Amino acid sequence: MTPAERRVWRAYPRGEYVDFRAAEDEDPAHVTTWGAERTVRASVLRTLLLKAPREDGEIAALKLAGARITGVLDLRYATVDAAVRLSHCLFDDVPELYGAQLRQLNLSASVLPGLTAATVRVGGVLRMTDCRMRGPVRLGGAQISGALFMERARFTAPDGSEPALQLNQAAVGDDIWAPELRAHGQVRLTGASVTGRINLQDAHFVHPGGIALDAQNLDVGGHIRARRVQVRGRLEFRGSRIPGRLDLLHARLSHPGDTALRASSCVIGELWLHGGERIEGALNLRRSQIEILSLGPEMLPDQVHLSNLTYTVLAPHEPAERRLPMLERDGGRYEPYGYEQLIAAYRHVGDDDAARLVQLARQRRRRTTLTWYGRLWGYVQDATVGYGFRPLRAAVWLLSLLAIGSIAFGLDRPRPVKADEAPDFNPVFYTLDLLMPVVSFGQETAFAPHGWYQWLSYALIITGWILATTIVAGVTRAVSRQ
Questions:
Q1: What is the pLDDT of residues 297-325, one digit of tens each?
Q2: Long-range contacts of 412-419 (CB under 8 A, 24+ apart)
Q3: Which of 240, 277, 284 is nearest to 260 (CA)?
Q4: pLDDT at 390 > cutoff 80
């Protein structure tokens, strides 16, 4: 063994820390050559971890910093009882940890050409803080009893043939802590299970034209904090379960021409999506169940898919005019369920006026799906009584028709049916008799108009029935809301 290797060998049984770094050492990410005085062969480390003798009363551990590790560190299917810390190291080759069982693994601030550790089992914490991974990191199916730390880590997949970071089907017994993470290439979390929280604040995911963060069927015990996250590519959460918050405050999501954020078929406690720039690409929340949807209208893209989305609270409270556009951007299709959810959200906070505006907008949107004569009748209803949601408009129409009828019949009184029994003619109450379908003042049955006045009376009777019914319906809704 070289002097550097003998130094590591002697320190291991007592768990002593070996640091090859100088007082002002260079960053391993920018190192071109390191001398033999700090070079350790991976085969020596393997033998040390698997066969080195232990000392009674001491806790063995590999604690190494600032070393260049040559060759492949091959621990496939191995069981290592000692903690392994290889920080600020430079690896020449990809470590092979497939199926290994480790007590604890710390690769903080090290530079690696990749990592193959699928199905690895770590009894404690796996730490990759400040790591620089220049090739794929394969951790699919990993079981980590403690937390996974990846603060400020950099992951790159140069050829793009596979994800830069694979954590699919992984199980983490605590948190995933990865603020300011940078990934050039796909990060895959499909089917992963995290008992605690996931922190992705200020992280960057770059995979233009593809899925940047694939977290389909992710199961998280707490929150996902992704404030100020920047994503170029799709952010995919389809089928995930997040009982806490999915916090995307001030996020920048960009996937032009495709879906930028898909959180369909999810169960989410709270989704926070506001305060950031307008989403470039489609937003898909179909079939999800969200207790509190905090959605800023300023972030909504041109295409929003909300079919069968269920939510209880919609925040922040905005006028209906600012919420309705999101229901009109679902590919031009009429989705009544979306309107029903928005109506229920406004009623939940007691804003009946906004709820009526949404009901009116729903009828107008439905009108576009009808035949030409159905649309024509819809326009008539809208103009006259606002589909029943503008009862005061109906009253205005009634007063206008009352004035028209009173003037018309006042200028040309209809002849009495029985001259000797007819009461004195009153044009106002005669018109009211025609317009009011239930109340009778004895004028309509006593007089019979002729000529075009007869047609005017028929029109007043028909419109009176329609408008009076609309007013009664509006009053009934108002009373029932009380």
A1: 999 999 999 989 999 999 999 999 999 88
A2: 412/453, 413/447, 414/447, 414/448, 414/449, 414/450, 414/453, 415/447, 415/448, 415/450, 416/446, 416/447, 416/448, 417/445, 417/446, 417/447, 417/448, 418/446
A3: 284
A4: no
- Burial 206-235, CB ≥16 within 10 A → b, else e: bbeeebbbbbbbbbbbbbbbbbbbbbbbbb
Residue 27: predicted pLDDT: 67
What's the pLDDT at 478?
46
Residue among 115, 162, 108 at smallest CA distance from 134: 115
Q: What is the pLDDT of residue 475?
A: 53
Element at 241 (helix H, strand E): strand 241-247
Higher pLDDT, 461 or 151: 151
Alpha-carbon distance of 376 to 478, in angstroms, equals 28
Given this model, what pLDDT does residue 477 score?
Answer: 47
Task: Indicate whether 331 pLDDT > 70.
Answer: no
> Residue 438 — left, alpha, or beta (φ > 0 → left; ψ -120 to 50 → alpha)?
alpha
DSSP-based three-state secondary structure for 476: helix
Cβ of 398: how many Cβ atoms within 10 Å? 19
Task: Give the three-class secondary structure for 396.
Answer: helix
Token pair, residue 188, equals 């895959």
pLDDT tens by residue, 209-233: 999 999 999 999 999 999 999 999 9
Degrees (nearest 5) of the Cα angle 416, 419, 421?
A: 105
Which secondary-structure segment (H or E) carries 382?
helix 372-385
Which among 108, 118, 155, 116 is positioned nearest to 134, based on CA atoms?
Answer: 155
Place of tokens 């007063």: 399
Query: Cβ contacts of residue 467 below 8 Å, gap of 6+?
Result: 384, 385, 394, 397, 398, 401, 435
Residue 74 per-residue DSSP state: B
Residue 479 has pLDDT above 60, yes or no: no
In terms of Cβ atoms closer than 10 Å to its own Cβ (0-12, 13-18, 19+), residue 425 is middle
Instruction: Please give the Cα distance from 115 to 102 (Å, whole number).
Output: 15
- Comparing C-alpha atoms, which of 47, 73, 77, 49 is closest to residue 63? 49
Question: Whole-angstrom Cα distance, residue 320 to residue 356?
Answer: 9
Please give the helix or strand (H or E) that residue 5 lies within, else none. Answer: helix 3-11
More confident of the two residues 358 and 231:
231
Section 114-130 average pLDDT: 97
Cα separation, 249 vs 238, in Å, equals 19
